[in-house]
Amino acid sequence: MTRSGRAAVILFVGVVTARLVLSGGFGWFVQQHMRYPLAAAAVALLVFGAYELIGASRGTADDDHDPHDQGHDHVDGHHHDHDHGWAGPRVGWLLALPLLVLVTVAPTGLGAEAAARVDAYVPTETDNRFGPLPDSDGPLEMKVLDFLDRAAWDPEESLNGRTIRLEGLVVNDPEITDGFKLTRFMVSCCAADGIPLQVTVRGDGPALENDTWVIADVVWTPPEVPYAEQEGPFAVEADLLRVEVVPGGAPQDPYESPY
Q1: pTM of this structure
Q2: Which residue in 72, 116, 196, 207 is a FRET match for 59, CA 20 to 30 A apart?
């Protein structure tokens, strides 16, 4: 690949990275705390790409030719053409193909299909002590992960009778005829390690399609059989009081972090 070609690819990568950071689209792939490292990487790529482009335009060494692509006449009188084929100089352009996909296709994150392929998170008993919930005049907003952990293992049953507001996407299950699984993915680093967090929400409500982002007000009551005494993986359930579709289709940060 020529120096001007390298400059073009580097600049393209930098522009796409900067676009994902500015638009917030990077949040479909990695945690929000990666915003600043990605922004720094975008600046570095743009600066280095501009440097390469200026060097190529000035005709500095190693610009737009590769001496290995030229033929050589040796002392024995035979002409040898050191042609390494198209793959050597041109394969670098293939690096731009994944970026073209990001530019032309709107990014989407993990959803109902991913939730069907991965086992849902099951809260495990820990020694963590749950503090009292804060007072609130209306529904108390809570992360789905905190709701699951507290519902399963808080000995004080602090969720009992409280109206909790959860945000997640709809995952329909044919075995659940009176509700859906409110789902949010827990991501430690990137979407590749995502684990679905699910609360089975039951109650009267509108029919919602898979992957519809909703805000649901729910009430949890202790199960008749404590989770610790249930055999196998258990599902945390809650009664639905109210549900509304998230304006804009999705929150700015679609994932939750375990940290």
Answers
A1: 0.76
A2: 72
